[in-house]
Specification:
2-methylcitrate dehydratase PrpD, two-stranded antiparallel sheet, about 450 residues, alpha+beta
């Protein structure tokens, strides 16, 4: 696709720059701000729980060797770091448990790609909740404009879209938070493209969360360098050797960008899918179905012969482990997650501890869970759960919407229950209710007065 290089702002890079430079002047409703504050609470709580994992522990030890003290906080270690380092570390922690929210067109996680970077810069600059919210929405809108045309094919090639496309949204958001000019924003987007990376080969390992940390650090780096005058090409997305050519198939983004910045916002029409379970999103609909059937028919493994999961085409691609050996691998195993749900009657953070995955009573039931894809379009996503009982009968449920999706959202109270589980998982003394009350009141507060250093105990 060839884009006009004239002064009419028709290319994606120029449209993004113009949209972002004007974002702080656009009105954001109270309801829209509340959605962004929910995303902040969810991401923060999940990241705190993530600090119990080895990946952020190792990353924090590395930062002690290479970085000094700064004005941003490492959410779970009690350290003050430069914004770029804090964004990197908190991004790793926020993604390592695979409990962070989703944007379906991105085929990835929007908030964890942006919020660690936004919080770090908010702490450095003293930004308030209103500015934070405007920046988040701007980044979200950019992701929603780019993703529908290219994200699915991009992911099928093996890219980790949360990081590789997410860095564009994160840099967009950071540019708004810093109040960059149109020229500076175009440079920042160019620098973001320079750093876009992330492969699905790393799923099930620490490297997956590392990629999200890099996304956040890259966004902070790009925005701060652009603010200081560092330049980059202004056609980095659509140029001959730009993002679309190298990471996509020169897709036409015209439809996605035709409504950029106009009402209704994508935040209103698409929304955010909040994860109810701390594992790969490709398992969630099946988990909803299994737990629903288990409760409705009083099922246990004592009366279940086998469980069959069927999904849409490409619905199982991220699930690379049939016999996981660790908690991280378990998060990408349909077999383990379904077997554990039927055995325990629930899925929570502790379900993916290494010791839980290694339980003999789980191992012996993995082969009784099967999964397959049916010939169908890749979207919309769905899952059918078929449970064969030992008495010869069977029960079945077809699930098209996961609990927590924008179409069936968790209430604020249910979101706080999730946050409380995260806080309890790390022995955090502060109440999720107290933190939520401050986050939901961010209109009147600075971000750094709410998201403070919190050492996991």
């Amino acid at each position: 696709m060839s884009y006009d290089s004239g002064p009419t702002m028709t290319s994606p890079s120029r449209q993004i720059a113009a949209f972002l430079a004007d974002s702080l002047r656009r009105k954001v409703s109270a309801a829209q701000r509340h959605v962004t504050y929910r995303a902040l609470l969810d991401t923060y709580a999940v990241a705190l729980a993530g600090f119990t994992d080895d990946a952020p522990r190792i990353a924090a030890a590395h930062l002690e060797e290479v970085h000094g003290v700064g004005s941003a906080s490492a959410w779970g270690t009690g350290e003050r770091l430069p914004a770029e380092a804090a964004a990197w570390l908190n991004g790793i922690a926020g993604h390592v448990l695979d409990y962070d929210d989703m944007l379906p067109p991105l085929v990835g996680h929007p908030s964890v790609a942006m919020i660690p970077a936004l919080v770090a810069l908010s702490q450095q600059t003293g930004a308030d909740g209103m500015r934070f919210s405007a920046a988040y929405i701007a980044g979200y809108e950019v992701l929603a404009a780019i993703s529908p045309s290219m994200a699915m094919k991009h992911v099928m090639k093996g890219w980790h879209s949360t990081a590789s496309i997410g860095v564009l949204g994160a840099t967009a958001a950071c540019s708004v938070l810093l109040g960059l000019t149109e020229e500076q924003t175009a440079n920042a987007i160019g620098l973001a493209v320079t750093q876009a990376a992330g492969t699905r080969q790393n799923f099930g390992t620490m490297a997956k969360s590392f990629q999200v940390g890099q996304c956040n650090a890259a966004a902070v780096r790009a925005a701060l360098l652009a603010q200081k005058g560092f330049t980059a090409p202004h056609d980095a997305i659509e140029g001959k050797y730009g993002f679309l050519a190298l990471y996509g198939e020169n897709e036409d983004l015209a439809d996605g960008f035709a409504t950029l910045g106009r009402r209704p916002l994508a935040l209103d029409t698409i929304g955010i899918d909040v994860k109810k379970y701390p594992c790969c999103y490709a398992i969630h609909k099946a988990l909803d179905g299994v737990l629903s059937l288990r409760g409705a028919h009083d099922l246990t493994w004592d009366n279940v012969e086998r469980i069959e999961i069927v999904s849409q085409t490409r619905g199982l691609q991220p699930l690379t482990y049939t016999d996981p050996q660790s908690g991280l691998e378990g998060k990408f195993s349909m077999e383990y997650s379904i077997a554990a749900a039927m055995l325990d009657g629930k899925i929570q953070l502790s379900s993916f501890d290494d010791v839980q995955v290694a339980r003999p009573e789980i191992k012996e039931r993995l082969t009784r869970v099967t999964k397959s894809e049916a010939p169908s379009p890749m979207l919309p996503r769905w899952a059918t759960v078929k449970i064969a009982l030992k008495n010869g009968s069977a029960v079945e449920q077809h699930v098209t919407t996961s609990r927590g999706d924008a179409q069936d959202p968790l209430t604020d109270e249910e979101l706080m229950v999730k946050a409380e589980d995260c806080f309890s998982y790390v022995g955090r003394k502060a109440s999720a209710q107290d933190i939520a009350a401050m986050v939901f009141d961010l209109d009147k507060r600075r971000v750094r007065d709410v998201i403070t250093v919190g050492k996991a105990t």
